[in-house]
Amino acid sequence: MNLKRILLVAKKTLVETMRDPILLVFVLGLPAFFMLICYIGYGHTPKTATYPVIVLSHTNKADGLLAEVSTAVYSDGRPNFEVITINSREEAENALKDRRAAALLILEEESDGLVHYTIRGDALYMNFIKASTQLEAVILPWLEREQGKPDRFILQVKPLTHPRPMSEFEAYVPGMMVFAILLIIPQTAMLIGRERRWGTLRRLDLSLLRPAEFLGGLCLSQLVVAAIQVLLMFGAALALGFQNRGSLLLALGIGIILAFSSVGMGLLLGCFMRTDTDALNTGSAVSMIQVFLSGAFFAMPTPVLFTLLDHPINLFDFIPASHSMLALQQVLSGGANLAEVGFRTGTSLLLSLLYFVIGVLVYRRLNDKQIFYR
């Protein structure tokens, strides 16, 4: 292969991309816009929030329980709850409706002398879901001790070696980066479809440019785009208050590895698309499916198929984005180093190379059969 030809193809693709404002908005602007939306929705939602809880007590036997609820704290010393005592049921219900409180805890004494509790709130309100779960983690052990039941387990809280995200927004930043890189799939497929529509592929086939040189230049240009995406998303996250705890260089390397698989999948899709519009639409659907399956937006409950080198392999771990997502999360949010994310990074690299090779082989086979020009 001729390196100069590869660089010329890469330059040509990048120049055409820069001259296409719609493509630039799709590839670079859309992920940054979603990052802003994510910040607006979750930027002020701390993962260790202090939830205001209204207490309506009709018994004196729950004083010990209220003391435990009031003194419950996170590992960083922040209190779990802000206990608000109210004697009026109507006032408490109004506070719930206005969302001035996350939950209402009602304590009553049953006929047998035992304390009965009721937790009320809006089941669709995320603060109620979290507050009620933490409340029961305090209430149930206390009730069992009051009833004389032996302890079934002893919970020992040990902080992780690495820090964790302090807000929901920080937890979503690595996933937004994965989402941005996966947009290379429809972009690559669209570029091939556009070259086919313009007749460029036919002219390149008649020239001295080899398919491997064309694909190499196309891949190189998309890796440059991926690097710009990661830097742009990282800069946007920092501007919105993201607290980086890891190496940007390592995160950039993980992003480029994931871009290999995105280019390979884009090549594979582009081989079967007749126009660049079809390629863009189909590629976008494939990207979004991988975004959800990889856990970039929310964790997917998947069964563990087997264990490899002490690492559980789940159902959707055949997708490189699943491994890249975990690696980016551990690096940016947890401050992990290369040795700690080596397995996930290496697995993502192998899968990315596999998808890229499959895309190249399919492209060359179909090119030899001249299916492109029918």
Task: Put the structure in a nutshell.
The chain is an alpha/beta fold and 374 residues long. The protein is built from 13 helices and six strands. Strand 1 (51-57), helix 3 (63-71) and strand 2 form a beta-alpha-beta unit.
Blueprint (SSEs and pairs):
Layout: H1 3-18, H2 21-42, E1 51-57, H3 63-71, E2 81-85, H4 89-97, E3 103-109, E4 115-120, H5 126-146, H6 168-182, H7 184-198, H8 200-206, H9 211-239, H10 248-270, H11 276-293, E5 304-308, E6 311-314, H12 320-333, H13 342-368
Parallel strand pairs: 1-2, 1-3
Antiparallel strand pairs: 3-4, 5-6
Helix pairs in contact: 1-9, 2-6, 2-9, 3-5, 6-9, 6-10, 6-11, 6-12, 7-10, 7-11, 9-10, 10-12, 10-13, 12-13
In order across it, which strands form the biggest sheet? Answer: 2-1-3-4
How many discrete domains? 2
Which spans have pLDDT < 50 for at least 5 consecutive residues?
A: 370-374
* Helical amount: 55-70%
DSSP E strands, number:
6
Helix-strand string: HHEHEHEEHHHHHHHEEHH
Number of helices: 13
Task: Tell me about the largest β-sheet.
Answer: 4 strands, mixed
Beta-strand share of residues? 5-15%
Global shape: elongated
Mean pLDDT across all residues, rounded? 81
- Class computed from helices, strands and strand pairing: alpha/beta
The Cα radius of gyration reads: 27 Å
Distance between the termini: 28 Å
